[in-house]
Design a protein that fits this description.
Elements (H helix, E strand, L loop, with lengths): L15 H49 L10 E5 L5 E5 L6 E9 L5 E3 L13 E8 L2 E7 L5 H10 L6 E8 L2 E8 L8 E9 L16 E4 L4 E5 L2 E5 L3 E3 L5 E5 L8 E7 L1 H26 L1 E2 L4 E2 L6 H15 L17 E3 L5 E3 L1 H10 L1 H9 L4 H13 L4 H68 L1
Antiparallel strand pairs: 1-15, 2-14, 3-11, 3-15, 4-8, 4-10, 5-6, 5-9, 7-8, 11-12, 13-14, 16-17, 18-19
């Protein structure tokens, strides 16, 4: 038993707090060690489940891009002369070639007033100006002190503006008011009507039959395009409906020249999805191998070594990946027929030549292999969704481990509280003992003194 000259009470021979602390430490050591071991195990398993779920979710995102037939209905649209027109194609577009001749672009009506020698500060007079585009009109009230710049601002700032933009262009003759329709097309012609004109405001009136002082900068006209030899008009340079599922964007007129639009299955887009499928699967497989593997050199196993949930998941993934798809009659009934096989390490290996040939010769067959009900993408998508869902095995187990983690925290708090109480109890007990020992020591010293005194008296007698 440890002793010390220093003490918490006068004359004590015991280091009460040190003794009490050592006893409490000895009692709590196995309790703390057990909680620490269990906490470390829970934390390791939680981390492993997080790694597993992340890898599965990443692979799921790639699978979701090819789990339905609609995912393979991607079309490319190629113009033989993109300087004249471009195109995009949707899922309903049918592969084929079409002749396109752009005869006329759609333009927006634009007119310029006569010059105002005084520039943008020229007073335009007073009255009212009604501007219309395609028959939709709004009116500006013009006060006597209104300048050309004021009128421009009033037009652009009108809350009921029906589609007219105004600007001012300076020239050597003076400032000109430019009015432009915001929308293209023959129907969107401009008119300017003036009423109660004073001070020259009537010079701003315009119609196509009575242009007044205005000069037409651009006519209001529709686009004209011939598709496969048939004419089509549009108020804009974006043509939809001429070919099912195809949108044409006209860029420049090229009268008399027919250029080719080619609609095809977008093999490149699908190949990118397949590459992502393989890459994310292999990343998932590598993560799983690390979780359930065993290192013979270090004699350490992965955190999910022998885990039944993981073993079952791997088995289902392997079957979903490699089993043939029922109901297919073509040459491509499994991933192996596309040139996608499983290597010795469990990763997918791609035969680029075989896969490219399959996509080029039987695009629909590849789509059916992945996207039909019961196809590779379809069944893997369902499997992965179940695995990572809130009610899936990973989430259920994670919640159970989090609850266990909370219980371990509660246990640690309880141990801390009990040990604190035990420390206080030991201190009280040892303090009592120390006081008793001090009293006995004092009594012993008194008796020793009395005996020595008595012995001296007897010797003198």
């Amino acid at each position: 038993m440890a002793t010390s000259a220093s003490s918490i009470s006068g004359g004590s021979t015991l280091d009460v707090r040190s003794l009490a602390t050592q006893l409490v430490a000895a009692e709590r050591a196995p309790l703390d060690a057990q909680i620490k071991r269990e906490s470390a195990s829970v934390a390791t398993t939680l981390s492993a489940l997080g790694t597993l779920k992340s890898a599965l979710s990443t692979f799921q995102a790639a699978v979701d891009d090819m789990s339905m037939l609609a995912d393979f209905q991607v079309r490319s649209a190629k113009s033989s002369k993109p300087e004249t027109f471009t195109a995009s194609a949707g899922a309903s577009a049918v592969p084929g070639s079409y002749g396109i001749e752009v005869q006329q672009l759609a333009t927006a009506h634009s007119i310029a007033s006569g010059p105002h020698a005084g520039g943008s500060t020229t007073l335009v007079g007073s009255g009212s100006v009604t501007l219309a585009v395609g028959g939709r009109a709004f009116t500006i009230e013009v006060a006597p002190a209104t300048t050309l710049a004021n009128l421009r601002d009033a037009i652009n700032g009108a809350r009921d503006n029906t589609g007219v933009s105004a600007t001012i262009v300076q020239s050597t003759e003076g400032a000109r008011l430019i009015l432009s329709a915001r929308e293209t097309g023959a129907a969107n012609t401009l008119t300017v009507t003036v009423a109660n004109a004073v001070g020259g405001l009537d010079s701003l009136a315009y119609t196509d039959v009575a242009p007044g002082s205005y000069t037409q900068l651009a006519a209001a006209q529709d686009a004209i395009v011939r598709v496969a030899g048939f004419g089509q008009t549009s108020a804009t340079n974006t043509i939809t409906g001429a070919i099912d599922g195809v949108t044409l964007t006209l860029v420049a007129e090229d009268v008399g020249s027919v250029h080719t639009l080619t609609i095809a299955n977008d093999v490149e887009a699908v190949r990118k999805r397949l590459d992502s499928f393989v890459t994310t699967y292999n990343a998932m497989q590598t993560a799983i191998a690390g979780l359930r593997g065993y290192n013979a050199a270090t004699k350490e196993g992965g955190p999910l070594l022998g885990d039944s949930m993981l073993l079952g998941l791997e088995t289902r993934l392997r079957r979903g990946l490699t089993d043939a798809v029922d109901g297919l009659t073509g040459p491509h009934t499994s991933l192996a027929t596309l040139g996608i096989t499983t290597g010795a390490d469990g990763n997918l290996v791609v035969d680029d030549v075989k896969l490219s040939a399959a996509l080029g010769s039987d695009f629909e067959g590849v789509a059916q292999l992945f996207g039909r009900t019961g196809g590779v993408g379809f069944r893997l998508g369902n499997l992965l969704h179940d695995a990572v869902s809130m009610n899936g095995g990973i989430s259920v187990r994670t919640r159970a481990l989090l609850e266990q983690q909370e219980r371990l925290t509660d246990r640690q708090d309880a141990v801390d509280a009990r040990m604190q109480a035990q420390l206080a109890r030991y201190i009280r007990q040892f303090t009592t003992l120390d006081t008793l020992l001090s009293t006995l020591d004092t009594t012993s010293s008194y008796l020793d003194t009395q005996l020595e005194s008595l012995s001296g008296m007897l010797k003198r007698d």
